[in-house]
Amino acid sequence: MNTKRPVQCPAEQVYGGIGMNGYTALGAQSYSFRHFDMNGALEQLAKLGLNTIEFCGVHFPPDPANPDLPRIIETVSSRKITIPCYGVEGFSGDKEANRAKFEFAAMLGAQYLSADPAPEAFANLEALVDDFGIKIAIHNHGPGARYDKAADTWNAVKNLHPSIGACVDTGHVLRSGEAPHEVIEQLGARVHCLHLKDWKIGGDETVIGEGDLDLFKTVAALRAINFTGFICMEYELDPEDPTPGMKRGMQNWIDAVSA
Fold it and tell me: By the 8 A CB rule, do 113 and 137 touch?
């Protein structure tokens, strides 16, 4: 019997299918569209048939006082697009600077901030995640980064507020010599977001599903932890025309979820 779910109109379907209690949104990281302005990035998102995006500083800064922010929010809202996450952002021991980023995220309606926090930031981040109801998701960034291995993230968050967790970048996990599905299992409920990216070990980035990322094991690991966060495709290849490669990768992901 064919158990594959039919794929509906992309604009009306959220392509996670991970959580036991419903779907998990699939979107894109705006860095994939870094050669486009904000409106161009939204056009690229529309070509993918998606309506969720994680914006980063390439398109507009994390500043609640930015005079352009009301216009940006209106533009995004008019297109029926949501911004569940913003980042990746650094956080320091400066409580007021950190608070400003949370105020900004709240204005966007974001639920998560993907982050690279310095150790001294955690003392005030614990209060901020509680005050704003916005989660911090530590982004691993590969060999040499502050949060390279899964153990680096786990050791940082294990005794902190449960809203401080991980944004697992599957491509960088592969670059660091670990298996994404094992990292997801190790971090468990601390996995708040996923940057879905593929890599050929010892080589370069690939289309999602065409490198060494085991999509089926990744899906199984997310289901095992009952993941209900945000899955964000990030594709750094073909910056002048990223959507063909992203579409191919998106279909590979849908096939793995639906299998």
Answer: yes
**What's the pLDDT score for residue 259?**
86
Cα–Cα distance measured from residue 122 to residue 68, given in angstroms and rounded to the nearest whole number: 30
How far is it, in rounded angstroms, from Cα 196 to Cα 26? 9
User: How does pLDDT run across 85-134, given as a tens digit for each residue?
Assistant: 999 999 999 999 999 999 999 999 999 999 999 999 999 999 999 999 99
What is the pLDDT, as a whole number, of residue 24? 63
Quick one: residue 121, left, alpha or beta (phi over 0 = left, psi -120 to 50 = alpha)? alpha
Nearest C-alpha neighbor of 253 from the set 230, 225, 219, 227: 219
Structure confidence at residue 1 as a pLDDT band (50, 70, 90): very low
Count of CB atoms situated within 10 Å of the CB of 20: 8
Residues whose CB falls within 8 Å of the CB of residue 15, separated by 6 or more in sequence, listed in order: 23, 26, 231, 250, 253, 254, 257
N-to-C CA span, the chain:
11
pTM of the model: 0.91
Instruction: Name 187's Cβ contacts closer than 8 Å, sequence gap at least 6.
Output: 150, 153, 154, 165, 166, 168
Q: What is the pLDDT of residue 80?
A: 96
Alpha-helical runs (H) found in 86-159: 95-108, 122-132, 150-157
Element containing residue 232 per DSSP (H, E): strand 230-233
